[in-house]
């Protein structure tokens, strides 16, 4: 009962963050259809979770998992602008759910982190302090593929080599270091 409660709360936070600024739903999408989508996509993502029980998920496998989330949403094309959720929304959904599960100790450390505007800005602040190149900020809600997403993740990896506050940290740990809840 407690695990179900926590998992439902995690999904509430995950969906809220993944769709808050995305404008992904068609204006006439019913709440019933949205709830059905959320129920089914959460099951799809939970089925992917076993791959993350142990570490060493490659970037390629993780990217394919993100694409599978986007592709799965095609089954609900009648509620989405463009007939599905894009890569940006899918990465936010999968990565945020993985982050929560990792922090709870249910899976190994995920290979990436949820990419959004805030993390891009914080990585740029760090790069500026280290006198390094900064990212071009791109709206995560418009990512159609992994191109800019991987630039952000690799930017974090590069900063881990030069920024003493991130020295040796993985991308997921860098994001936790930079994350601050805005109250």
Question: What is the topology?
Answer:
Layout: H1 2-19, H2 31-48, H3 59-72, H4 87-103, H5 117-129, H6 147-162, H7 171-178
Task: Give an overview of the whole structure.
- This protein has helices at 2-19, 31-48, 59-72, 87-103, 117-129, 147-162, 171-178.
- The protein has two domains: 2-103, no CATH class; 117-178, no CATH class.
- It has 183 residues and is mainly α.
- The longest helix has 18 residues, at 2-19.
- Helix 1 packs antiparallel against helix 4 and helix 5 (117-129) packs parallel to helix 6 (147-162).
Judging from the principal axes of the Cα atoms, what is the shape? globular
How far is the first residue's CA from the last residue's CA? 29 Å
| Contiguous uncertain segments of 5+ residues | none
According to DSSP, the number of beta strands is: 0
Q: What percent of residues are in strands?
A: under 5%
Structural class call reads mainly alpha
Number of domain modules: 2
Q: For the residues shown, what is the average pLDDT?
A: 94
Radius of gyration: 16 Å
Q: Would you list the SSEs in sequence order as H and E?
A: HHHHHHH
Put simply, the count of helices is: 7
How can the largest sheet be summarized? none
- How much helical structure, as a percent, in the residues? 55-70%
